[in-house]
C-alpha cells in the first residue's frame, strides 16, 4: 500500500493495488452478495474488539485490529472484483466514475 501526501489536489491518499481474480467467474449478483458477507465479517471483527458479540472475553486490541485489517482487505478485494465485473461485463468506465467520485467529495468539502 502506498501513502501519498502533498500530491496536487489531494491532502492524503492511499493507493492499494489488488489483483483481478482469474480463477473465478463472478457475476454482479454473486459479487454483491460476497461484499455483504465480507462486510459482515468486518463488523464481526469490530464487535469482538468492542465486546458487542455477546461473548464474555473480548479479543486483545492488537489481535482485533489485525482481524479488522484482514477483513477490510477482503471487503476491498471483493469491491475491486465487482469493478472488474462492471468493466468487463457492462462496459462501465471505472476511472471516469472514480474521477466523478473525487469531484463529488471535493464539492462536499470532504477533501481538497
Automatic annotation (TrEMBL):
The lineage of its organism: unclassified sequences, metagenomes, ecological metagenomes. It comes from bioreactor metagenome. This is NTP pyrophosphohydrolase MazG-like domain-containing protein. CDD domains: NTP-PPase_Af0060_like. Gene3D superfamilies: MazG-like. InterPro entries: AF0060_NTP-PPase_MazG-like (IPR044548), MazG-like_dom (IPR004518). Residues 28-107 form the NTP pyrophosphohydrolase MazG-like domain.
